[in-house]
Write a structure and sequence with these properties.
single chain, alpha/beta, Adenylosuccinate Synthetase, Chain A, domain 1, Adenylosuccinate Synthetase, subunit A, domain 2, Adenylosuccinate Synthetase, Chain A, domain 3, 3 domains, ten-stranded mixed beta sheet, four-stranded mixed beta sheet, binds guanosine-5'-diphosphate, binds 6-O-phosphoryl inosine monophosphate, binds magnesium ion
Length: 426
């Protein structure tokens, strides 16, 4: 079993690495998040952009699971299935199973996501407005609706009634149009037949797959610094994104024993608001953004760019007990004379080497940098470690020493094949 999770603020290239490792996987499972994720795969020049569908969906040899920890917008899922089918993929119940216990994102959740963001004013989180937070709120408040409820119309209607009664109280206070249960019910019925064939007991299938010694790959979404508990709260997403969530989000207890691959970009990006100590507001930040095509897959927003922050990645390694690192987008650093790596922070004259939980001191953090040489020439497309320029090898070695984990995968372009594998997986 292998788990792939992000060690930064998302968009580390999880889609590419999951797709690569999926070559030898029998099952791929998502365990948290929803269609706030945007995972890009490039295979022989063809690009696939996935939001909810696991990145194994493009492979014929794998079955994809959407675990109970995921929140599912049934309209978005139906549209995504239709869209990838237009790209030539065939999605069947043999290829995709959605946990009956996964919670639904309803249109009301998207509306509330927008309202709450507006209400936060200049303290807004910059959410993807996909309804993720409000759907998880309803789940935790025990008034949520689960995918499996679609198969039981009477039960669904009564659950909807309680949910909408609840939300109509706050909506009324805001002077907005009251939600109508019958309308929502018939909208759900219009999409039901596109979803129900895929509903199944993901937990049981995974337990069986594990007992049969099948290769299972868990695909994280977002990144460790967006984790609801361990990230830069409150500028986070509404799920646990760390490896500890795999078992809870799939129902396979044994998943916690998987080999955890932490994904890290060779620099750092963040989309949305919140603290970012190594952010670059200068020409280099601009250069990284343009060279790395740093625009959000889901919202098209420009991603903020900065230097690699070893303090943050080390923090992520600790929380998820990461075994090895996959370093992506090394090629984006091609052409820089010097590269900085954040090795610690100064806060009011004192030095620290960890991530403080008190958000109010984040703005006073000053990164301490170690500067290393850049390299001439290009790393783009290199597939063998020995072919990398010596300075690039040194950069990788320096990161390994700082984060105290082996960098076992190095990615040098968006293409599946442009990857250096220093360790064999599965
Ligand atoms: P994810 O959310 O972690 O799956 O990452 P995204 O797909 O949102 O963003 C990563 C972007 O970088 C995508 O456009 C990838 O195609 C691209 N990418 C992945 N690895 C590399 C790489 O090594 N080099 C370059 N230049 N682009 C990469
Ligand atoms: P992938 O899987 C980058 C960010 C949003 C916002 C915060 C909360 O592609 O790495 P939400 O809609 O989840 O309530 O937004 O989290 N965010 C991501 N940033 N990559 C993602 O996913 C993200 N999913 C959410 O920008 O700051
Ligand atoms: Mg992404």
């Amino acid at each position: 079993m292998i788990t792939v999770i992000g060690t930064q603020w998302g968009d580390e290239g999880k889609g590419k690495i999951v797709d690569l490792l999926a070559e030898r996987a029998d099952f791929i499972a998502r365990f948290q998040g929803g269609n706030n994720a945007g995972h890009t795969l490039v295979i022989d020049g063809k690009t696939y952009k996935l939001n909810l569908l696991p990145s194994g969906i493009v492979r014929d040899n794998t079955q994809s699971f959407i675990g109970n920890g995921v929140v599912v917008d049934p309209f978005a899922l139906a549209a995504e299935i239709e869209s990838v089918e237009k790209e030539g993929l065939t999605i069947t119940p043999e290829k995709l199973m959605i946990s009956d216990k996964a919670h639904l994102i309803l249109p009301i959740h998207k509306t509330l996501d927008g309202i709450m963001e507006d209400a936060r004013g200049d303290q807004n989180i910059g959410t993807t407005k996909k309804g993720i937070g409000p759907a998880y709120e309803d789940k935790v408040a025990r008034r949520g609706i689960r995918i499996g409820d679609l198969q039981n119309p009477e039960h669904l209607k009564s659950r909807l009634q309680s949910l909408i009664d609840h939300h109509n109280i706050s909506i009324k206070g805001l002077g907005l149009k009251q939600q109508n249960v019958d309308e929502i019910y018939s909208e759900l019925m219009s999409v039901k037949d596109k979803i129900t064939p895929y509903i199944g007991a993901v937990d049981q299938s995974l337990v069986k797959a594990h007992a049969d010694n099948k290769n299972i790959l868990f695909e994280g979404a977002q990144g460790s610094l967006l984790d609801i508990d361990h990230g830069t709260y409150p500028f986070v997403t509404s799920s646990n994104t760390v490896a500890g969530q795999i078992s809870a989000g799939t129902g396979l207890g044994a998943a916690r024993k998987s080999h955890v691959v932490g994904l890290a970009k060779a620099y750092t990006t963040r989309v949305g608001t919140g603290p970012f100590p190594t952010e670059l507001d200068d020409d280099i930040g601009q250069y990284l953004g343009e060279k790395g095509h740093e625009f959000g897959t889901v919202t098209g927003r420009k991603r903020r760019c900065g230097w690699f922050d070893a303090v943050l990645v080390k923090h992520s390694c600790r929380i998820s007990d990461i075994d090895s690192i996959a370093l992506t987008k090394l090629d984006v650093l091609d052409g820089l004379n010097e590269i900085n790596i954040c090795v610690g922070y100064t806060i009011n004259e004192s030095k620290i080497d960890y991530l403080p939980s008190d958000i109010t001191i984040w703005n006073t953090i000053k990164p301490i940098y170690k500067t290393v040489s850049g390299w001439d020439g290009t790393t783009a497309g290199i597939q063998n470690f020995d072919d990398l320029p010596i300075e690039a090898k040194n950069y990788i070695q320096t990161l390994e020493d700082l984060i105290e984990k082996p960098i076992s995968i190095i990615s040098t372009s968006p293409e599946r094949s442009d990857t250096i594998l220093r360790e064999s997986y599965f």
